[in-house]
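dude i think i finally got it to work??
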Amino acid sequence: MDLIVFDLDGTLLNKRSRVSTHTRETLLRLQRRGIAYTVATGRTLHAARDLLAGHGFDLPHIYKNGVMIWRPQDDRYSHSNLLTNHEICSVIEAFSAQSVTPFIFTVEPGNHHAVYHPPLQTKAEHQLAQVFQQERGLALLDVAQLPAEADITNISALGQREAIEAVECMVRDEEHLVAYAGVASEGDKLHWVDIHHSAASKGDAVAQLKSDLGVSRVICFGDGDNDLSMFALADESYAPSNARDDVKAAATAVIGHHDEDGISHFLRQRFSL
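look at this
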């Protein structure tokens, strides 16, 4: 069978980070045709669950750029490639040197999630903390409370471009870490960075699903550098016109803009929906 794999932000979702009416109808048409699809995103389950609810995402989901796979039928994670407290010490020091506050995401017994952080330093960081707590229902705790044995999925932060690039450069020298970064939607010339275990990637997670589900062909959609690993594995890969240049260069083809239902229009034509 074919398996379609969607990135979310900048790809399947519109600029308001929602599934549009046109896309919702297209997903319904895929369901009716029995065409399998899932998601591979840098988001956490908590940040994506409400967006995906009711849209037929019944197969396993890939979260945090391949750090973990959520199996909705079993209501459980397949944990892999998590970080330890020891592995992130140098990252915390690098953020501190750049006056940027890191948010440390954990998964704890019972599949509970929490976010630990040092004191917040900027308005943007306070706003981001509110999003984590109020919109995504995550517990925010002082970094001093981070358990020594915590399973860490990733570290994220917002900051000025120069500061984020300095942290990103430091991570390149860390054997077990990888960083993805980009321009933040929060504005004020802010950039974001997301750091996780170097063994985790969307490509590896998609390969695992391909094996588990008996998939013969993978068709994927994405716009960022964290999508390149699944582009390399896929039989067909498509980038919306808003994608990074290197992603468009790696794609089978470039299709419409994510805020103009580019993926949705392409799917209707590709599968005669």
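Residues 70 and 77 are 4 Å apart (CA to CA).
im so relieved honestly
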